[in-house]
Amino acid sequence: KTERNFMIRALLTFHASTCSRFVWRRRQRNYLYFYSGSGCWSYLGRQSRGQLVSLQKNGCLYTDTVQHEVLHALGFHHEQVRSDRDSYVSILYQNIKPGQTHNFMKRKTNNLGTPYDFDSVMHYGKYAFSKNREPTILAKRNPSLNFGTARTMSKNDIARVNKLYQC
Ligand SMILES: [Zn+2]
């Protein structure tokens, strides 16, 4: 299947740049179960037993999307909810769709010594969850900066994986 081969290639990008390794499941208790569900999503960090990662056939099969969801599974939050985000971005709550503000809640993240990174594959776009085509996130240093368009993991994304998993 083309989809399956694409997935494997996307997972292999982790082998090329990080120390995480994906193996076919044999009898492991905890494992990732990739399937084509509704939308692209993944749980944060390790869950018990078969952990679902949904990558819908039409819409999620892009290298950056697969990397993004796998990074959630490896324990990483979105970049714009980092503990230190207020020094780098403003969240424009007045432009966020009702019921979506939880997506912008700041988290007590362990940033592992890496800088805030607009090029992270975990960064939302400037207009994420906008109800009125106005930005929901602005870069403080440069409000005209566009971001959240990474096509692949940044060097900070890679550094974090290797730091978290100590390799
Ligand atoms: Zn996400």
From TrEMBL:
EC number: 3.4.24.-
Peptidase M12A domain: residues covered: 1-167
Keyword annotations: Hydrolase, Metal-binding, Metalloprotease, Protease, Zinc
Cofactor remark: Binds 1 zinc ion per subunit.
Molecular functions per Gene Ontology: metalloendopeptidase activity; zinc ion binding
Keyword RNA-binding attached: no
Protein name: Metalloendopeptidase
Annotated GO biological process: proteolysis
Cofactor(s) needed: Zn(2+)
Residues the record marks as active site: E69
Positions with a binding annotation for Zn(2+): H68, H72, H78
Enzyme class at the top of the EC tree: hydrolase
PANTHER family: ASTACIN-LIKE METALLOENDOPEPTIDASE-RELATED, DISCOIDIN, CUB, EGF, LAMININ , AND ZINC METALLOPROTEASE DOMAIN CONTAINING
SUPFAM superfamilies (alphabetical): Metalloproteases ('zincins'), catalytic domain (SSF55486)
Source organism: Notothenia coriiceps (black rockcod)
InterPro entries in UniProt: MetalloPept_cat_dom_sf, Peptidase_M12A, Peptidase_Metallo
Pfam families named among the record's database cross-references: Astacin (PF01400)
